[in-house]
Amino acid sequence: MAKPAGPTSHDVVDIVRRALGVTRVGHLGTLDPFAAGLLVLVVGRATRLAPFAAQWTKDYDGVIRLGTVTATDDKTGAVVATSDEWRTLDRGRTAAVLAEFRGAYDQRPPAFSAVKVDGERAYRRARRGEPVALEARRVEVRELTLTDFAPPDLGFRATVTAGTYLRSLARDVGERLGCGAHLAALTRTRVGPFRLQDAVAPAAVTPGAMRDPAVLVADLPRRELDEIEGELVVHGRSVAAGPGTGPKMGDKGRVALFSQGRLVAVAERVGDALKPRVVLTDA
């Protein structure tokens, strides 16, 4: 879906539920209400495949506004500090600081985030005015480039791994530059193999716009089943592993099972057998 700025990700999910007449709709990572761009939704039994896409990288275009720190680390929050130190910065110094954030680093999530603290979402505590100190977690910024230098605004393009907060990145860049900053605009342009230019608006979604769920497991070894094996698998029964289904690096011995060219299950290799773990079709 091509999410506009304004609605929440949950709002978009509700629109798609009504448009398609289904109840089970999920997504591959939320977008904050002020952000726009690609929100990949999974519908029906395809929601079971979401974990297989959990490690996909994401691309973003955004704007960091220097000199203003907010409570939420984005433009929606109350201003908590200001500075004019950004006026001393030049493009070279700014680009060099952004380059320092490429690679893996320990990032502290925003206080206004869905991270749980003692079983409660951090943003709920923050909204009550309670102090929220979240532990830093390892993230990876694959790419980060300065695309526009118009102080106090910095245009940037980033590719990040799952769990990376762009709001935190903007905050951290501001701290490193010595002037503070927040995320002023954000557009997600890619999630794994999906790109924003191919997305449709939430209100325009139709069954014909849905993609083959097999794309979510395209990196797994593939096993085509015959008719008898297909019947066994949809009933949760194991089938012989067969050639070409040995585990690849990182796939944990999982294999995508197809019947007549259609994805019917994801199995786990146990010895010489493939045991269905996620079944996508009715018996």
Mean pLDDT: 92
The assigned structural class equals alpha+beta
Overall 3D form? elongated
Span between termini: 31 Å
Fraction of residues in helix: 10-25%
Uncertain ranges: none
Number of helices: 5
Work out the number of β strands.
19
Instruction: Describe the main β-sheet briefly.
Output: 8 strands, mixed
As an assembly, this protein is single chain
Radius of gyration: 22 Å
Task: State which percent range the strand residues make up.
Answer: 25-35%
- The SSE string, one letter per element, is EHEEEEEEHEEEHEEHEEEHEEEE
Lay out the secondary structure.
Layout: E1 2-3, H1 9-20, E2 25-27, E3 36-38, E4 41-43, E5 58-66, E6 68-70, E7 79-82, H2 91-100, E8 103-107, E9 116-117, E10 120-121, H3 122-127, E11 137-150, E12 153-160, H4 166-177, E13 181-191, E14 194-195, E15 222-225, H5 227-234, E16 239-240, E17 254-259, E18 262-270, E19 273-279
Parallel strand pairs: 3-13, 15-17
Antiparallel strand pairs: 1-3, 2-4, 5-12, 5-13, 6-7, 8-11, 9-10, 11-12, 13-14, 16-19, 17-18, 18-19
Describe the protein's architecture and organization:
The radius of gyration is 22 Å and the shape is elongated. It is of the alpha+beta class and 283 residues long. The mean pLDDT is 92. It is built from five helices and 19 strands. The longest helix is centred in the first third of the chain and has 12 residues. Strands 1, 3, 5, 8, 11, 12, 13 and 14 form an eight-stranded mixed sheet that branches. A five-stranded mixed sheet has the order 15-17-18-19-16.
